[in-house]
């Protein structure tokens, strides 16, 4: 049986990220056409906006948490963390989804923050609170994903998984974040140097 992986990201970051990327692309074309019409280099605006697109990729679109049958993977801004369940001590949620490895190191996720209430909840227990009318789906927040990670760890243990006490994990640099940013900055520098 193949390992099933579920990827979690927040909807607002995806919507905002894709909106900015589409707007940036349109802006690059429009400004490039205006620059070409005035006799300037039409590539310069695209080079500046390529850096913006790379930052949007790193901050809004790339971060994710992937939960599979035997591990949790967190893609943060420029680092990736892979925690096998054998090295996972706990899944918590103080400010964001936090994975604690067996060495006691806490790894926080950029992609999954805790739920924030836009308005204070009332303390009054009413009939409306007991029904599903007006309620939305639970969404991807740290409380929900932490619970799902704990469920997967329990399934892993029931299937015969064994912990590796005292062993931790280390974050690794993510080339899928560093390379696009470096390429965009290099493109901008070349365009500015060549005029």
From TrEMBL:
The keyword Transmembrane helix applies. It comes from the Bacteria. The chain crosses the membrane at residues 15-34, 46-65, 173-194. Keywords: Membrane, Transmembrane, Transmembrane helix. This is PH domain-containing protein.
């Amino acid at each position: 049986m193949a390992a099933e992986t579920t990827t979690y990201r927040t909807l607002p970051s995806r919507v905002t990220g894709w909106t900015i990327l589409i707007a940036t692309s349109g802006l690059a074309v429009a400004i490039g056409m205006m620059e070409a019409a005035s006799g300037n280099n039409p590539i310069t605006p695209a080079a500046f906006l390529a850096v913006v697109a790379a930052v949007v990729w790193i901050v809004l679109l790339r971060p994710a948490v992937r939960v599979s049958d035997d591990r949790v993977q967190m893609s943060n801004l420029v680092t990736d963390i892979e925690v096998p369940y054998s090295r996972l001590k706990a899944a918590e949620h103080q400010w964001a989804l936090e994975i604690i490895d067996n060495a006691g190191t806490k790894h926080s996720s950029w992609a999954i923050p805790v739920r924030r209430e836009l308005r204070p909840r009332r303390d009054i227990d009413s009939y409306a609170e007991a029904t599903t009318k007006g309620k939305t789906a639970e969404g991807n927040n740290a409380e929900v994903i932490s619970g799902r990670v704990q469920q997967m760890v329990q399934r892993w243990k029931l299937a015969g998984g064994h912990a590796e006490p005292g062993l931790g994990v280390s974050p690794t640099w993510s080339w899928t974040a560093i390379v696009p940013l470096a390429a965009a900055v290099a493109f901008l520098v070349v365009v500015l140097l060549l005029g």
